[in-house]
C-alpha cells in the first residue's frame, strides 16, 4: 500500500509565467510551465470550464484552450472579455496583462513532494 503525499495549494505564478495579447474584444493569454513536470498539473487544472469560472466576473462568452506540448504551454483565447475592446472600454484594467495577473493567482493543487521543487520566489 502506497501512501500519497498530502496536497497543498500554490498560486499559478509559482509554477508558470504568462504572455498576453489583445485584439478587438478578445484577449489571448498563454501560460508556460516553469518546468516540464508542472505541465500535467496545468493541463489537468486549467480547463476551459475552470477559467470560465475564474473569469466569471468579466463574463466571457467563450474560452478556448490550445495545448502546445512542445513548449509546455497552454494558450487561452477569451472572447468578449474586454468591454468591447481596449480602445472602446472605459475601464483601464481590462487589458490582457491585467487579466494574466489575475490568472497567475489561480490556485494549483499539487502534492507536497512536487512542491519541494517549486522555486521559492519570496527571497
Fold and architecture overview:
The protein is of the alpha+beta class and 123 residues long. It is built from 4 helices and 6 strands; from the N terminus they run βββααββαβα. It has helices spanning 39-45, 48-54, 96-103, 112-115; strands at residues 7-11, 16-23, 26-33, 62-68, 73-79, 107-111. The strands form 2 sheets. A 4-stranded antiparallel sheet has the order 2-3-5-4. The chain has a two-stranded antiparallel ribbon with strand order 1-6. A hairpin with a 2-residue loop joins strand 2 (16-23) and strand 3 (26-33).
Give the tally of β-strands: 6
Uncertain segments are: none
Order of helices and strands: EEEHHEEHEH
Sheet/helix structural class:
alpha+beta
Radius of gyration from CA coordinates: 16 Å
Morphology: elongated
Tell me the major beta sheet: 4 strands, antiparallel
- N/C terminus separation: 38 Å
Q: Order of strands across the biggest sheet?
A: 2-3-5-4
In terms of quaternary structure, the protein is: single chain
Report the mean per-residue pLDDT as an integer: 90
| Residue share in helix | 10-25%
- What share of residues are in beta strands? 25-35%
| Annotation field: number of helices | 4
Amino acid at each position: 500500500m502506497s501512501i500519497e503525499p498530502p496536497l497543498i495549494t500554490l498560486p499559478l505564478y509559482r509554477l508558470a509565467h504568462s504572455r498576453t495579447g489583445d485584439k478587438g474584444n478578445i484577449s489571448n493569454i498563454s501560460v508556460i510551465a516553469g518546468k516540464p513536470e508542472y505541465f500535467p498539473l496545468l493541463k489537468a487544472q486549467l480547463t476551459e470550464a475552470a477559467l470560465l469560472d475564474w473569469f466569471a466576473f468579466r463574463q466571457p462568452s467563450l474560452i478556448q484552450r490550445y495545448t502546445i506540448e512542445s513548449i509546455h504551454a497552454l494558450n487561452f483565447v477569451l472572447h468578449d472579455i474586454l468591454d468591447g475592446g481596449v480602445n472602446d472600454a472605459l475601464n483601464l484594467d481590462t487589458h490582457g496583462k491585467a487579466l494574466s495577473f489575475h490568472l497567475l493567482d489561480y490556485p494549483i493543487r499539487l502534492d507536497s513532494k512536487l512542491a519541494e521543487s517549486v522555486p521559492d520566489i519570496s527571497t
